[in-house]
Amino acid sequence: MFITFEGIEGAGKTTQIRYVADYLTAEGHQCMITKEPGGSAIGRRIRAILLDPANRDIHPLTELLLYAADRNQHIQEMIRPALSQGKSVICDRFHDSTVVYQGYARKLDTGLIHELNRQVMADLIPDMTFILDLEPKIGLQRAWQEVNQGTRTDRETRFESEDLSFHQRIRAGYLELARQDPARFIVIDSAQDEDTVKKEILQALTDRLAALEQ
Ligand code: TMP
């Protein structure tokens, strides 16, 4: 099973992914938690370039190609091997991030984005995708608070430094994707407390698993 998590900065993906992995492990699944960008060793080097706030001059097309390069390496080296060993893979961001960040927010050619994703992913589509939906103002506040407290590195803040309208386009983009494909996406209100978010995710997960097994 391949599960992805999406959302704006500060939506709480990392915490909730851990809960899902704990739940699946307790149910007898072997799980691999991974993320994009930076799920492979080569990807971690690409991630450092992509998120470094000093790289203000990165060209939007360069940015897109680096995300595609990271994804290709990640799929080949990590995701496909794990799935073929029967593991469940839980990924913090995947191709929907590219559609939303580089497409909806940066306004790059959506045809090119879909073609790159098609080349890199082939038949690999997530079985379910959780969108942790949150007002961008709250998400950015949370993200910067983590940077200031030292629990999030200040060397990866290139996207947090974008203005509010950029993050609003991202949120709207995710909600539009969810509207187009309700069979894959599950939207969770991430402004709720952590425990309520966890309960809603696990409920949706068990419902989907039961449906998949039928
Ligand atoms: P994160 O790992 O802290 O979520 O940071 C990853 C950043 O990269 C986040 O701001 C979203 C952005 N991103 C894209 O712009 N396009 C992509 O395809 C992916 C995977 C992430």
Quick summary of this structure?
The protein has 214 residues and is of the alpha/beta class. The protein has eight helices and five strands.
Explain what the structure shows.
This protein has a single domain (about 1-210), classed as P-loop containing nucleotide triphosphate hydrolases (Rossmann fold), CATH 3.40.50.300. About 60% of the residues lie in helices and about 15% in strands. It contains eight helices and five strands. The chain has helices spanning about 15-25, 40-50, 60-85, 95-105, 110-120, 135-150, 165-180, 195-214; strands spanning about 1-5, 30-35, 90, 130-135, 185-190. A five-stranded parallel beta sheet has the order 2-3-1-4-5, sandwiched between helices. The longest helix has 25 residues, at about 60-85. Bound molecules: thymidine-5'-phosphate.
Identify the CATH architecture: 3-Layer(aba) Sandwich
| CA-CA gap between termini | 15 Å
- Give the strand content: 5-15%
Low-confidence stretches: none
CATH topology: Rossmann fold
CATH superfamily: P-loop containing nucleotide triphosphate hydrolases
Q: What is the molecular shape?
A: globular
Strands, total number = 5
Number of domains: 1
> Class in CATH?
Alpha Beta
The percent range for helix content is: 55-70%
Radius of gyration: 16 Å
Strand order of the largest sheet: 2-3-1-4-5
Bound molecules: thymidine-5'-phosphate
**Total of DSSP H or I helical runs spanning 4+ residues:** 8
